[in-house]
Amino acid sequence: MSGRFVVLEGPEGAGKTTLAAALAARAATARLDLLQVREPGGTPLAESARRVLLETADAMTAESELFLMLAARADLVRRVIRPALAGGRIVLADRYELSTFAYQIAGRGLDAAAVRSANALATGGLTPDLTLLLDLPAGVGAARQLEAGKRRDRLDLESDAFHARVAAAYLAAEGEAVRHLNGTLPPAELAEAAWLELVRIAVPEGS
Fold first, then answer.
1. Which of 12, 42, 32, 7 is nearest to 139 (CA)?
2. Contact, 195 vs 26, CB < 8 A?
3. How many other C-beta atoms are found inside a 10 Å radius of the C-beta of residue 25?
């Protein structure tokens, strides 16, 4: 059986990292071969790009931000994701291309056709088998981060208007492989809903 590519998406503070850990723990209990990755990150090159993207204090153009993201993604897809899928593994990614469409197209205002074309080149056309999108009203994620004492990175510190555009883009996202989940649910309930979706596409019927 070929692998399955599952992506968690949503605005800042939606709970993707917590959900990824919960799904990985369930997969281990169910003896599913699951590999966790994050974006940007997952390879030495991609982790270097992550530091520049999130921690630099210098001004960065929208185009520079886009190409750093895509360089990290291209390396992760080629070196980690595609080999894992070819080996029949489930790959669970914390963010993927929908983040680029939300942040760089909706948030930054870059040309949609150009961004999608560049992303297709970076990924070689690899698309998720399932995208679990955690819906969260604008402002809720930022409030969660402050309450948790999270150190805010360069993107976290963007304007409320920027984050509102990103949240709206996520809410409007649709597609055959996209499943919207209520990001305001308690963590255990959210994990249960996400697990049922993952099992539906990752476990053959009758197994």
1. 12
2. yes
3. 12
